[in-house]
């Protein structure tokens, strides 16, 4: 088994030859920003609740105030979080590779804050809102006492995120598949590969001829399909990858 530096060097060579890179991220990349992943024990407050029950239309209909408070708590925690070295390394790749498309399952806005400019949020964004019944976009939350607050049409307001059982936004998923079909490398970071259709993104790229690099402290269902598996935390591995890519760069090329 080659050592990590040899693997990183091999990945840097693959990235150095790529014109289009897709980076596909999950909750693990935000772990080092202090945001627990879905597989981490939830904080004590929500220990008895299952995200797969709360992040659903049924869950919201059953108890809109509970689901609203769950998202309000997460929004408050996420607002205090900052992009970590993993997010920053991904943003840095834009200066080294012609086209870098970031497809994220995360709703925490940290890739945008880190400076990634071609970003596809396939599961929405916790800081955006819409109304439950008619999907009216809600620019700012009304100051009424209702929990959840209500849209001008009278419907409850909800976070503009994709719940289990909901279709992913058409434009985002079309853009994601188009990028996966044309990339030479897909870099999969911090996802357990359990939630579909995002779990299948790496296979779509591989079937279209891309090489797969996975960064995760643990093996996942994607690891078996990866050409390179860099085992470790994103905040440590990704900066190493960027440094190695920089050292491979011929002066004056895309950098
Ligand atoms: C859909 C937004 C078509 C909300 C999320 C029955 C009925 C309906 C659908 C289904 C069904 N059965 C299955 C499905 C499909 C379902 C699904 O996949 N379910 C799973 C549970 C089996 N998918 C859907 O419903 C999707 N829609 O299919 O529409 C349809 C429609 C109707 C009927 C049929 C089909 C919509 C899914 C989107 C759900 N919304 N988020 C919110 O956040 O509140 S999902 C949410 O959970 C995340 O967005 C993410 O996708 C997922 C969590 O996964 P990860 O991000 O991978 O995180 P996880 O915690 O699992 O793992 C963290 C990883 O990081 C680990 O590997 C760990 O080792 C690693 N790590 C830890 N530390 C680090 C690290 N890595 C790097 N560095 C570190 N430091």
Task: Tell me about this structure.
- The protein is α/β, with parallel strands linked by helices.
- It has one domain (4-248): Rossmann fold (3-Layer(aba) Sandwich), CATH 3.40.50.
- The chain is built from 9 helices and 9 strands.
- The protein has helices at 4-16, 51-54, 57-62, 64-79, 85-92, 110-114, 170-182, 201-207, 234-248, and strands at 20-25, 99-104, 119-121, 124-131, 137-138, 157-161, 185-189, 211-216, 228-231.
- The protein has a 6-stranded parallel sheet, sandwiched between helices.
- The longest helix has 16 residues, at 64-79.
- The radius of gyration is 19 Å and the shape is elongated.
- The two termini are 32 Å apart.
- The structure holds ligand BV8.
Set out the fold topology.
Elements: H1 4-16, E1 20-25, H2 51-54, H3 57-62, H4 64-79, H5 85-92, E2 99-104, H6 110-114, E3 119-121, E4 124-131, E5 137-138, E6 157-161, H7 170-182, E7 185-189, H8 201-207, E8 211-216, E9 228-231, H9 234-248
Parallel strand pairs: 1-2, 1-7, 2-3, 7-8, 8-9
Antiparallel strand pairs: 4-5, 4-6
The chain binds ligand BV8.
The site of ligand BV8 has 37 residues, from strand 8.
């Amino acid at each position: 088994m080659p050592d990590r530096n040899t693997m990183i060097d091999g990945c840097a060579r693959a990235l150095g030859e790529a014109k289009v890179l897709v980076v596909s991220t999950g909750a693990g990349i935000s772990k080092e920003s202090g945001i627990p992943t879905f597989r981490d024990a939830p904080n004590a407050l929500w220990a008895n609740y299952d995200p797969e029950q709360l992040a659903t239309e049924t869950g919201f209909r059953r108890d809109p105030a509970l689901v609203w408070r769950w998202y309000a708590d997460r929004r408050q925690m996420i607002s205090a979080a900052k992009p970590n070295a993993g997010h920053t390394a991904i943003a840095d790749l834009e200066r080294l590779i012609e086209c870098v498309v970031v497809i994220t399952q995360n709703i925490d806005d940290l890739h945008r804050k880190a400076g990634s400019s071609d970003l596809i949020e396939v599961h929405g964004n916790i800081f955006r809102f819409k109304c439950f019944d008619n999907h009216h976009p809600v620019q700012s939350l009304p100051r009424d006492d209702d929990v959840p607050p209500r849209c001008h049409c009278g419907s409850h307001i909800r976070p503009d995120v994709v719940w289990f059982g909901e279709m992913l936004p058409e434009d985002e998923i079309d853009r994601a598949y188009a990028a996966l079909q044309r990339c030479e490398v897909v870099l999969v970071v911090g996802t357990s590969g359990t939630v579909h259709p995002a779990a299948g993104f790496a296979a779509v790229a591989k079937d279209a001829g891309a090489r797969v690099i996975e960064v995760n402290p643990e093996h996942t269902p994607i690891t078996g399909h990866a050409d390179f598996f860099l085992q470790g935390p994103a905040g440590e591995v990704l900066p190493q990858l960027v440094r190695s890519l920089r050292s491979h760069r011929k002066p004056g090329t895309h950098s």
